[in-house]
From TrEMBL:
Secreted among keywords: no
PANTHER family linked: PTHR47234, TONB-DEPENDENT RECEPTOR
Protein name: TonB-dependent receptor
Record-level GO cellular component terms: cell outer membrane
Family as reported in the entry's similarity comment: Belongs to the TonB-dependent receptor family.
This protein's UniProt keywords: Cell outer membrane, Membrane, Receptor, TonB box, Transmembrane, Transmembrane beta strand, Transport
Cellular localisation: Cell outer membrane
Domain of life: Bacteria
Membrane topology according to the record: Multi-pass membrane protein
Domain TonB-dependent receptor-like beta-barrel: 405-942
Keyword Endoplasmic reticulum in annotation: no
InterPro entries, A to Z: Beta-barrel_TonB, Beta-barrel_TonB_sf, Plug_dom, Plug_dom_sf, TonB-dep_rcpt-like
Length: 975
């Protein structure tokens, strides 16, 4: 929407960029001319590059207010796994706040390179375990200066030979406005979500100024925005955790225990004497009396706790300026300066005791119920919701800076050259409130806090106790830096031969990258928790948060590239069916201070059959260096819920259940004793022996722009590009769930065990569970060892479609229709040795698991915990009509169905496809005192469709926004 201001304010600049007066009547040649993907200005081989350019008109039609919403609207972009609604289970291991990831072709958020005006951007400083089981990095789309965009170019091809590391899936180049003529503009915009507390207020503006008789120019764009939070209570499908599915798949909200939490103000307690448990579980009733049983009478509806936010309130400011000054006729000084800052605030659930860190209470405390104190010297407390501490604030302040200064020049011999120095930095401070374990235990043991008073409801605690003594703030401070110097030369006519001019570009680049993660002392092992009863020392002294040490890494990268554009056939040769044939050859060498050297080539071909038909194709190799945390981290601890498959394998073998599915369903219910699914600690270590990920990229396609259709029908272009990406050495690890499956395989089939799955000694209950199964009893999992390593290859392929129709200067105005569609045909990863063995046992009927396949299954259109959601089809259609001073934009966005979860009978649950419409109407005023004013009103998701839900009744946060219609209006003035 902010680009509406640009459409008016920068009209002169846009027209100037068209270069010739009759360009207005031509359609945009789909991807035929673009800078991104080539360093040779104007080279004919650029037609070989599959590039989609999103101009200001199309940006405005999306109705997006920030980068997160924009990226979601583009069909070639994958699911947005990093987003403002992602709170990471209430701990700072997640990258929270004003964040949005970028993932071309759904290959992963760390496989797309982001450029600003052709040079790298700094990454978001906070890593997170997403897009697989490893800590990954991404660029922050919300830091993109949307209000100052001229266009966004997406190179849908491997580009490591031109730009270096990270460009495996492609490149996104953000092109900002430059050389704005004297004048300025300002826009105020208001937006609101239907039936929600969310409101948006934005102030956007620009100004430009020429000086020194036109030899210099300064152009500045700015944005200030304020967004109020959206609450869980705002939408029916997020307002409650207690919901389930009817047999026909329809949702039943409320009234069931499905989805409710057994972590409650009633807690769960167990008696110990001399370090050994003396019996089963207890809970407390509404009167504070201890009663036997692991399941309290009242469960907690986590989503219904008042005041919890689904997406945070955000205050954001973004400034971007550029300048140039002609020192001589052949020498220009130029620069950029950017600053982005965002402050977000969320409210998350009350803290709770940790299921993986036992906490013991002294039975001599007066508040301990008599039934718990009898015959015990300590009581373990678990599943206790510390509702007295209230809902907790999470504040994330992050900023990003960018400063660039450079020189460019032109020699009399025809050479163009450019050099620049760039420094960019990003920083985030995640501040959250939680519970200091040591202080909590002290407060309970000295009687100042009473966890046994009961009185809990589904949304809180009606018998408050003072929790202030152990509620503390923690900070996670992360910083990323990028410093870069480059020097580039190019000449489109290095020399001529029979088919035309041969172009050359070459350059060198030196860059420095660093990444720092500074954890709070209560989490990084500095301030430890020592259990008074067992003497066990825990590195984390913070409930609900695994211990994570500080980490720091840096590297230096030296690189050089060369690119050649060679014409083999020209129109002057009059060869039938070959109007022109151009080839791009490129290669880049990069030397890393920590992971070695790598060199990668690229070959691209553009065959202009005639004036209407262009055929193109490319083959290239790419690479991505391991991120600095994976190389430099010592030990990371993470907790997630997994199926301990050997348990149901034993129960099925012992005839307690007919099959694994029925066993898993029964043991997943609260209060049934030993559970099949529980929280497991993963111990992950960095690896300095990691190799760069390598890729091979293939693409071929055509662009058909019929010149035989009369201009009265407009200009048409249709393009299609098939692509395939093969990634070797992808960095990952055998995920914890598959490690547990492998442990079950070894125990059931081979009579051994997985040494990376470390277990506690079996209890009496464990021994009873394995009785009659023929399998040796095992205890619960203590932890799973995992090391980051280079895994088996990933293969992905798909097809992109584009259609462009433009009709100008008719009696009814100007029309344009742009259709953009992306299909992912397959995404597979070859199984590891362990996964192959598991699969062979499943196929042979030796291992009875809930899954039927593991490893190389095509994950397109099917949710996977490792790779997220990849709909097979995504598409958009944008229609723009301009008549006199009116502009009407209509946009349709389609997202395909996906399989996400199972029905009760084990069959696939299909999340339906969606189709959402946007509409906006704009009026420009040109007379009298209203001259320069414009007003616009519009709606995103015009027909107020809710997002589709999965089998658990949850919306797909990485694919859809958690609301229906969004309405907005703006007023703007230019001068």
């Amino acid at each position: 929407m902010v680009s509406a201001l640009q459409s008016v304010a920068f009209g002169a600049a846009a027209a100037e960029a068209q270069a010739v007066s009759d360009e207005k009547s031509k359609p945009k040649q789909l991807d035929a001319v673009s800078v991104v993907g080539s360093q040779i200005a104007g080279g004919g081989a650029q037609a070989a590059l599959p590039v989609i350019s999103i101009d200001a008109e199309q940006l405005d039609a999306t109705g997006a207010t920030d980068g997160n919403e924009l990226i979601r609207s583009l069909p070639q972009m994958g699911d947005v796994t990093w987003n403002p609604t992602w709170l990471g289970g209430g701990n700072s291991n997640a990258a929270r706040g004003d964040i949005g990831s970028i993932s071309l072709r759904s290959i992963g958020a760390s496989n797309t390179l982001l450029l600003i005006n052709g040079r790298r951007s700094v990454i978001h400083p906070t890593t997170a375990t997403v897009d697989g089981a490893i800590s990954t990095t991404t660029y922050n789309s919300n830091a993109i200066p949307m209000f100052g965009l001229e266009r966004m170019d997406m190179l849908l091809d491997g580009a490591a030979a031109i730009y270096g590391s990270d460009a495996i899936a492609g490149v996104v180049n953000v092109v900002t406005r430059q050389n704005l003529a004297d004048g300025g503009g300002v826009q105020f915009e208001y937006g609101t979500v239907s039936g929600s507390h969310r409101e948006d207020y934005q102030l956007n503006g620009y100004f430009g100024h020429d000086f020194a008789e036109g030899r210099g120019n300064v152009s500045v764009m700015y944005n200030f925005s304020h967004r109020t939070p959206q609450y869980f209570s705002d939408q029916w499908y997020t307002a409650t955790s207690g919901r389930t599915r009817r047999p026909d798949g329809s949702l039943v909200p409320g009234g069931t225990d499905s989805g409710l939490s057994t972590t409650t103000p009633y807690g769960r307690f167990q008696k110990y004497s001399d370090g050994t448990t003396t019996g089963g579980y207890y809970t407390v009733n509404a009167n504070g009396e201890a009663v036997t049983g692991a399941r309290p009478a009242v469960l907690v509806d986590s989503n219904a706790i008042p005041g919890l936010t689904l997406s945070p309130g955000i205050k954001r400011g973004n400034f971007f300026g550029n300048a140039r000054f002609d020192l001589t006729d052949n020498l220009q000084l130029f620069g950029e300066l950017g600053y982005y800052q965002a402050k977000s605030k969320s409210w998350i659930s009350p803290a709770s005791t940790s299921t993986t860190q036992p906490t013991y209470i002294d039975t001599s405390v007066a508040t301990v119920p008599a039934a718990l104190a009898a015959g015990a010297d300590a009581i373990s407390i678990s599943n206790y919701l510390i509702a007295d501490g209230g809902i907790r604030p999470v504040r994330v302040d992050n900023y990003q800076t960018r400063a660039l200064v450079g020189l460019r020049g032109w020699t009399d011999g025809g050479w163009n050259w450019e050099t620049a120095l760039l420094y960019s930095k990003s920083h985030a401070d995640d501040d959250m409130v939680g519970v200091d374990v040591s202080k909590f235990v002290d407060a309970v043991n000295n009687g100042s806090y009473d966890p046994f008073n009961g009185g809990g409801t589904r949304t809180g605690d009606q018998t408050p106790s003072d929790a202030s003594s152990f509620m503390v703030h923690t900070h996670r401070k992360t910083t990323a830096e990028l410093a870069l110097w480059d020097f580039k030369i190019n000449r489109p006519d290095l020399f001529s031969w029979y088919a035309g001019d041969i172009g050359l570009a070459a350059g060198v680049e030196v860059r420095y990258e660093s990444l720092r993660d500074n954890r709070d002392t209560i989490i990084d092992g500095t301030y430890k928790y020592t259990d008074w009863y067992t003497g066990t020392v825990y590195d984390s002294n913070f409930f609900g948060h695994s211990s994570t040490p500080d980490s720091y890494g840096s590297r230096n990268v030296k690189s050089a590239f060369v690119e050649v554009a060679v014409p083999f056939v020209s129109a002057d040769q009059h060869i039938p069916l070959v109007k022109s044939l151009d080839v791009q050859l490129a290669g880049r060498y990069e030397s890393y201070s920590d992971v070695g050297d790598v060199a990668k080539p690229k070959l691209a071909l553009a065959w202009q059959v005639n004036d209407s038909l262009l055929l193109r194709g490319s083959v290239s190799e790419g690479f991505k260096a391991p991120n600095l945390e994976l190389v430099n981290s010592s030990v990371l601890y993470r907790f997630n819920g997994y199926d301990d498959a050997i348990r149901c394998a034993a129960l099925v073998a012992g005839a307690s259940y007919d099959d694994y599915l029925s066993c898993d369903a029964a043991n997943a219910l609260p209060g049934t004793g030993i559970s099949q699914n529980y929280s497991v600690r993963s111990v992950r270590t960095g690896n300095q022996e990691l190799k760069p990920e390598l890729s091979k990229n293939y693409s071929y396609g055509f662009v058909f722009s019929p010149d035989f259709i009369p201009d009265t029908y407009g200009k048409f272009s249709f393009g299609m590009d098939w692509w395939k990406i093969e990634i070797e050495n992808p960095i990952g690890m055998l995920n914890d769930q598959n490690a547990l499956y492998y442990d079950a395989y070894l125990r059931v089939v081979e009579g051994s065990y997985n040494p990376n799955v470390v277990r506690f000694d079996p209890t009496e209950a464990d021994i009873a569970q394995f009785s009659g199964s023929g399998l040796d009893p095992v205890g619960e999992v203590n932890y799973v060892n995992a090391t980051y390593t280079n895994m088996s290859p990933i293969n992905a392929e798909g097809v992109d479609y584009t259609f462009d129709w433009r009709l100008r200067d008719t009696a009814w105005g100007d029309f344009s229709l742009i259709i953009n569609a992306a299909r992912i045909k397959s995404y597979t990863q070859d199984p590891t040795v362990e996964e192959a063995l598991i699969q062979s046992a499943i196929d042979a009927g030796l291992l009875n698991l809930m899954i039927s396949s593991i490893g190389a299954t095509n994950l397109v259109g099917r949710y996977s915990a490792n790779v997220g959601v990849k709909p097979e089809w995504k598409a958009s259609a944008t229609l723009v009509w301009k008549y006199d001073n009116w502009t009407v934009r209509v946009r349709d966005q389609y997202t395909d169905s996906v399989v996400y979860g199972l029905y009760g009978d084990g069959s696939d649950f299909v999340v339906p496809s969606t189709q959402r419409w946007n509409l906006s109407v704009k009026r420009d005023f040109t007379k009298d005192f209203l001259n320069g004013f414009s007003v616009e009103a519009g709606a995103r998701n015009l027909f107020d469709k809710d997002p589709p839900l999965n089998s658990s009744g949850d919306y797909l946060a990485s694919v859809y926004e958690p609301y229906g219609a969004y309405y907005y209006m703006s007023i703007q003035k230019t001068w």
